[in-house]
Every structure is written in structure tokens, then in C-alpha cells.
């Protein structure tokens, strides 16, 4: 998703794009995805507003429940009130990942060269003796350009090139089952029908586990994400899981869920969840290779912001490179991209990891306090610091009111003249000191969490 978004924003800025993909075909993958206002405002700006409406579901609220009884302990209304407030007019959608992928692919495809079945085996940054960076494919073919954008995910090989060392993602201790239920089956059951008729995102919180569920594909399908302790899963969107084991792992959930709902699931996908502390840098010292999305900031999906951060990355990168006047400006613009994105993505990683703790509390006093605080937030406004992060207005404004293009405009007002000098007379424009300071503060935050 991040790679397609970057292909669109960079091609829209006047650059020639080659997208290199190891898969043999572009096909359906994954399950549900939350598309939050900080992303939908960009997609609407890119002309995808009406197409999103056709395949998306607009959730009315988020609901938190006790796993064993189904008792509601937390509730935050979304819909138009949320969108017009913290969303600044942008909608909050639930979609199938494949539908989202197709929207971005159709947007980017006309203005890029797509190379399928092309596995990158090595990357060569630029150097004084080699002015153009290049990638070498498994076929032996070498592809050159002016800039390589590594959107190759949590197991990124390009990350090693940028850092000059291998840095693996950290296991979070969690893994997830993903499954989809046709809603026509749920509509036949009086207890399950309301989950379809009133589109909400529902979270059942349990010791060491939680379950997220919501409608997708215009309420034709019901998406389930079941989070549990990691037990040998792999980092993959396509690895098959055991539906029977999933039923066993969540067999102590409330009667509406167990055993009724899992009986409708015949197959499931399973993957290990990874994240890491902020990297030393996203930009190779040569200024010819840069990272984007999960390759530089993988995160737990517990704030629904993994894809959102990658798409914001793409928007910032494309906006900055719409101002490019000479090759000499590539490195300072990449440094600007990193400066604009490092704190934002690091804070979002921390917020996602915080929800891991909140959602998975063992039964007892701390869990009871969490539930009591969530109940208070149902009736109150503001709720700063509430364990229901979606009830915290201040956090919502920061997370969902963010506009990637606006942030670039603000940055350019202050720094644009300095960057322009690079094109005219080669004066340097590094922001490395600022970035190092941000990285240090974010490491402290993430370590504490």
C-alpha cells in the first residue's frame, strides 16, 4: 500500500516511476483494514472519495466488551460527529484490504512502469564513481534510477543497505488470526444480526488476548482479527492458520462468539506481529536510497495505523519532491522527509504498543480499574489519558486530524529558501541534528512503554 501510494505521489510530482514487485500477479490478499481520517483525507484529495464509498463501511462507533460476558465497558461514537470534529471532515472507513489495494493500484498504474516477478537480490547506492543507484534482480538484470525507495516491509533487505548492518524487527509476543464471515449467515441469527445492522467496531478484551470485529465490503462480509500470544507464527499476510485451533484459543469467549461465530469460519490466516524502536536513519548517506512504511517503522495494528503511516510517508515524500529543481536537492529533501516523519511514526508505534498492555490485562484489580475508567468515558467529554484511546479527544486530534500535505507546507515556509539554495549554489541543508534529537526522545518513550 505504501509503495503504490508513493508511486502515485511521486509520479504526480512529475517523476518517472518503476515499481518492482516480486509477486507474479497483483491479487487479493489479507482481510479487513481500518482507513482512518488522516488517510481518507489524502485519498479524497487524490480523487478516490466516491470509489471508497462504494466498497467501504462507515462505522458508527467503537465498543469495548468483556470477553467472558459481552458486557459493554467502553463506547465512543464515531460517524458524522467524530468525522466533523477530530476528523476535520474526513470519514473513518472499514474496508477489505484487497479493495483498498485495488483503489491505489488503479490510481498509480497509468503513471508507472510495473515490473512483476522481479525479485531484488542486491541494491547499490550511488557513489562518486557510480552516480546512479541501482538494483539487481534475481534474473541478473540491473535497473538504474536517481532514487530507490524501499517499501519492502518488515523483512526489508533495503533497510540493511541504508543502515550498513542487519537490523531485525522485534517480536512483540503477539500473533493474529484473521478470518471473514459472510454476513448473510449472521443475519439469520437474532443474536448476531445486530453486529451487521449496526456497523460498529467491537473489541472483546481478555487476559493476553483480544478480538476485533467489524463489517467490510458494504456490510456483505464481517472481518475478525483475533490477537493472541505468539506460538510459532510467521511474518506473512498469506500463511494458513488452523480454524480449529482458533476456536480452541478463544473458546472461553461469550456465547455470541464462542462457539457460535467461529463455526462460520472454515479457514483463517495467521501472522506474527512485529515492531522495533526508531532506526538510526531512513536515508542512506549517499542520499540515493530511502525507506518507507514497515521497512522503517513496523508497528502493532492496535491503533490501526500501520498502513496509515506508510501512506502518510508517501504523501510527504511526494509533496517534497514536487519541489525538486536539481539532483543536488535529493538528499536534503530526503532528510526533510525523515525529519517530518520520524517523531510522528515513533509516537504512533508507542500508542499502538500501549494498547497491547491495555487490551490484554489479566483479570483483577488493574483490569477492573481499566473497565471503570472506560465506563466513565462513555458519558464524559475530553477523557485525556483514558485507557480507551479513541475516547481521548486530544489524542484523536493528533492522530486523525493530521494532514500530511499541511505539515509539508508548514515545513517549507520555514526551510524552503534554504533548500532552494542547494539547487542554485550547492550549499548544504542537512537536518541530521534535529533527527538525532527526535530519535533519542522516542527511544526513551518506547522503552518505557
Automatic annotation (TrEMBL):
Residues of the FAD-binding domain: 2-344
Keyword annotations: FAD, Flavoprotein, Monooxygenase, Oxidoreductase
SUPFAM superfamilies associated with the record: FAD-linked reductases, C-terminal domain, FAD/NAD(P)-binding domain
Any one Gene Ontology molecular-function term assigned to this protein's record: monooxygenase activity
A Pfam family that the UniProt record links to this protein: FAD_binding_3
InterPro entries: FAD-bd (IPR002938), FAD-dep_Monooxygenase_BioMet (IPR050493), FAD/NAD-bd_sf (IPR036188)
Stretches of the chain forming a coiled coil according to its record: none
Flavoprotein recorded as keyword: yes
The family this protein is said to belong to: Belongs to the paxM FAD-dependent monooxygenase family.
UniProt name for this protein: FAD-binding domain-containing protein
Organism: Jaapia argillacea MUCL 33604
Amino acid at each position: 500500500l505504501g509503495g503504490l501510494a508513493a508511486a502515485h505521489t511521486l509520479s504526480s510530482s512529475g517523476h518517472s516511476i518503476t515499481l518492482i514487485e516480486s509477486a507474479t500477479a497483483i491479487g487479493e490478499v489479507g482481510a479487513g483494514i481500518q482507513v482512518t481520517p488522516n488517510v481518507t483525507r489524502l485519498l479524497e484529495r487524490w480523487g478516490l472519495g466516491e470509489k471508497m464509498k462504494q466498497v467501504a463501511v462507515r462505522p458508527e462507533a467503537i465498543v469495548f466488551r468483556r470477553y467472558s460476558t459481552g458486557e459493554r465497558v467502553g463506547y465512543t461514537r464515531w460517524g458524522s460527529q467524530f468525522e466533523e470534529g477530530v476528523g476535520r471532515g474526513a470519514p473513518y472507513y472499514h474496508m477489505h484490504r484487497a479493495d483498498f489495494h485495488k483503489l491505489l493500484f488503479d490510481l498509480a498504474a497509468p503513471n508507472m512502469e510495473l515490473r512483476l516477478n522481479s525479485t531484488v537480490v542486491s541494491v547499490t547506492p550511488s557513489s562518486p564513481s557510480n552516480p546512479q543507484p541501482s538494483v539487481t534482480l534475481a534474473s541478473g538484470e540491473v535497473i538504474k534510477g536517481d532514487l530507490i525507495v524501499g517499501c519492502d516491509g518488515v523483512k526489508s533487505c533495503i533497510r540493511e543497505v541504508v543502515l550498513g548492518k542487519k537490523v531485525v524487527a522485534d517480536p512483540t509476543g503477539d500473533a493474529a488470526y484473521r478470518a471473514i464471515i459472510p454476513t448473510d449467515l449472521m443475519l439469520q441469527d437474532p443474536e448476531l444480526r445486530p453486529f451487521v445492522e449496526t456497523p460498529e467496531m467491537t473489541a472483546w478484551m481478555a487476559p493476553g488476548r483480544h478480538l476485533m470485529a467489524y463489517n467490510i465490503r458494504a456490510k456483505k462480509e464481517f472481518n475478525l482479527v483475533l490477537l493472541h500470544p505468539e506460538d510459532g507464527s510467521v511474518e506473512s499476510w498469506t500463511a494458513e492458520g488452523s480454524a480449529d485451533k482458533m476456536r480452541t484459543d478463544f473458546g472461553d469467549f461469550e456465547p455470541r462468539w464462542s462457539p457460535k461465530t467461529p463455526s462460520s469460519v472454515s479457514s483463517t490466516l495467521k501472522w506474527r506481529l512485529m515492531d522495533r524502536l526508531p532506526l538510526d536513519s531512513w536515508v542512506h548517506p549517499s542520499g540515493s536510497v530511502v525507506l518507507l512504511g514497515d521497512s522503517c517503522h513496523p508497528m502493532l495494528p492496535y491503533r490501526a495505523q500501520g498502513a496509515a503511516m506508510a501512506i502518510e510517508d508517501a504523501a510527504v515524500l511526494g509533496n517534497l519532491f514536487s519541489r525538486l529543481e536539481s539532483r543536488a536537492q535529493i538528499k536534503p529533501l530526503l532528510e526533510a522527509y525523515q525529519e517530518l516523519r520520524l517523531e510522528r511514526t515513533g509516537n504512533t508505534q508507542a500508542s499502538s504498543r500501549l494498547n497491547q498492555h491495555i487490551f490484554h490485562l489479566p483479570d483483577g484489580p488493574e483490569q477492573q480499574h481499566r473497565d471503570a475508567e472506560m465506563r466513565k468515558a462513555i458519558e464524559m467529554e475530553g477523557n485525556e489519558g483514558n485507557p480507551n484511546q479513541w475516547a481521548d479527544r486530544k489524542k484523536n486530534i493528533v492522530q486523525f486530524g493530521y494532514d500530511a500535505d499541511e505539515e509539508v507546507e508548514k515545513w517549507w515556509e520555514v526551510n524552503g529558501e534554504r533548500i532552494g539554495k542547494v539547487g542554485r549554489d550547492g550549499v548544504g541543508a542537512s537536518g541530521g541534528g534535529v533527527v538525532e534529537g527526535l530519535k533519542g526522545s522516542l527511544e526513551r518513550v518506547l522503552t518505557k512503554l
